[in-house]
Amino acid sequence: MVVASSKVSGLDIAVDDDDVHAVKTTTKQLGSRWTFARAFVALSVVAVVCTLLYAPRLGPRIEQQRGAAAAFLGLRVGRSGVADGDEGGIGPVVLDNQVGSPCSTMPENSICCDRSDYHSDVCFMSGDVRTDAKSLSLLLFPPPGGAATTTAAKEERIRPYTRKWDAFVTKDIHEVRLRAARPEESASPSSHRCDVRHDAPALVVTAGGYSHNMFHVFNDGFLPAWLTAQHLRRRVVVLALAYTPSWAGRFGEMLAALSRYHVVDLLRDTRTHCFPGAIVGTRYHDYLAVDPARLRDNKTAVDFHKFLAAAYDDEPRHDETAPRQQPRRLRLGIVSRKGRRVIENQAAVADVAASVGFDVSVMETGRGRTPPLAATYAAVNAYDALVGVHGADLTAFLFLRPGTAALVQVAPLGIKLLSRNLFGVPAARMGLHYEQYDLRLNESSLSRKYAPDDVVVADPGRARLERGKKAWDLVEYVYLRGQNVSLDLGRFRETLTRRKSEVVHLVKADCDNISMD
What's the CATH fold of domain 331-515? Predict the structure, then answer.
């Protein structure tokens, strides 16, 4: 027998030729097997990761399997169904971000409702919160081994909408019940067992109300939702009442910017969802307003614009590597209304704007002319100035660039103060350069319906006072629905010239490729 010597890791090992041959053969076999094993493991990892990413809502079993798979891979899976990878835990959560709220210091395992605001009620639940689809309730369970809570024996009921004073619409908002679990429910292991366990608190909102109107979509819906939950930095699960696929599709970008988790259809999802807390309802500050003094983190309307930019702006605004652009003229958009409060001489107004030095675009509005919000954002955000008659479509001013862009609102006869409050004040708070063009009698179509000395057109303020409780009928049916406008081109030219003179220097300071023509 011939003995061969082999050195491995600095040691001399004696083996015979037969053993060498056997070792070589075995090594080849093991290498082949290990190659197969590595390929199998790699494919398994890919399959598990795909399951984590693309199967987030296939029911309770999938939730459990995903958790086990994530643990195997070393990933931390948010119990809201999201693989978070290297992100840290949510930690202690302050549910109520409102300064001076009675619920800002609520204890653990409790329910607190703030009903002091004229516009909205908001309730908070701290602890083990579970949904009960049959009764449209959120139940608060005691911690493991703890006794049933006694701090919330009374059942709270809330319709989560920011127009609680408006009985006409509020009556159609679903009512949600909040209560502590009864002792027999807490004692039973099978009572409201969690089908889906989330690691982020719930935010209950409604997709109902005046959701067909762009002003109300933002004023009543998404701005209040942002006010209420922005401090949670997307670690909140939206539970929607009156959910529809069209609502989720149209506002999907804002929903994704508000929450990193899937929206839960609270009326149709019969599973028991469990949360470490819940917020039911949303805060409201004023018309399209963010009051920093009422928020612990002092956010402003500019921060809400940043939220919209995060949702819709796909392109960086300052790219030093991009090729230098040719000088351009200022861009102006005209909101073109249909039906009522129409600019009857719109084509002539566009010509005047062009002669002043703007590149003019006309934004068509009305039924059947509703582009995706992402397209509207992209168009309006590119404008240096936006012009329009008072109306819901003017809510698009939220997409303008704070600090450099201008808003010119045409205020029809009889609604000058309303126009300023609804759009002028919030535009100024957002850092836009606002100018209001108050209509004169000869520019209103009402001059063709009423004599010049009729109180309706001669003194709209007195006309409203004379109507008493029916004053709003006069505003709605005469000043809002019964009026078109025809602008005095000479006077409006002066308005546009002022806006251009101010904006061109601001925009040029921000971006040096603006033409002074």
Answer: Rossmann fold (3.40.50)
